[in-house]
Amino acid sequence: MSRGDVSTRAPVASDSEPNGIICTMIAHADVQSDARDASSRIVDVERALALARNVLDTEARAIVSLSTRLGAPFVAAVERMLRCRGRVVVSGIGKSGHVARKLAATLASTGTPAFFVHPAEAGHGDLGMITADDVVVMLSNSGETDELLLLTPHLKRQGAALIAVTGNERSSIAQAADVHLDASVDAEACPLGLAPTASTTAALALGDALALAILDARGFSVEDFARSHPGGALGRRLLTRVADVMRKGDALPRVAASATLAEAIVEMTAKGMGMTGVVDEHDRIAGVFTDGDLRRSLARVIDAKAARVADLMTTSPRTIAADRLAADCIVLMETPPRIMALLVADDAGRLIGAVQMHDLFRARVV
Prior knowledge:
Blueprint (H helix, E strand, L loop, with lengths): L19 H13 L12 H24 L3 H11 L5 E4 L3 H15 L4 E3 L2 H4 L12 E6 L5 H13 L2 E6 L5 H5 L2 E4 L15 H21 L3 H7 L4 H7 L2 H4 L8 E3 L4 H11 L3 E5 L5 E6 H7 L16 E2 L3 E2 L6 H8 L6 E5 L5 E6 H6 L4
């Protein structure tokens, strides 16, 4: 009989019967696995939405239940990881391995030196990455994962502390651990009851709780977070200084207070910032001459070569120090009346640089 013959499939149970969804999925598995029938498949909208809501509700209940079980073991785990003199090593396999990788990454980015070790690779040499000063966190829903169980006696002999996150407090891994965290769930969200869903969500949430409790106990700050994320938007905003983005040297538009209007226009055009700083004989900032000042001067100036820029400039311009955050430039520029560029001054009021809004865009501070 052919593969597509209906008589070869299991009978379809109604949704009102026990395990109706499971039976339906099994019955249609043969058809759905055939790519030739893909174009004819349809989605039962109500059924899909009902299943999705059930998944979310199940996983939400798992997390709420988990929060009610937190207590002394959680605090003990936080203390061990906080006081760890080496690294926090996180390990797991399968779906738990993916959660373990995420936990290691979260710990590392929030001030706790951590890395992931694959348990199978650990048994073939990577165990040498773990020392007696380390804390090892093992994730296993069953608590009986063979690859982790094989590592346990070796880790104990090395003297590394062991924290287990499992769904079974009587499991071998839980019993061997120095601290066990209960991440058990009443049921998986998978309609087949097979795919790790609620259990991995619970383990993920518990891992986040650990990382953030340690972050708080460590006194980890926003600035610390930025230093761990120099490539991200927050890192750029909190680490980039005015000195990093300002124009200086030959790129800095600057004229003396004795310069003519014509000389100021030439300098503005050559440097392309839409303005020029005006300085006195000691290089201190006397003012700024901008495109706006130029437009306003045209109504009352006839001879550009005879007019002095000092008579047309904006006095007491906004300035910023080179060691300020580049993001602070935005606040100064956006304060009415808005401007597009700032002069950078040293402690003595001397002109040392200039920042234009486009410079901030290029540095991805904005």
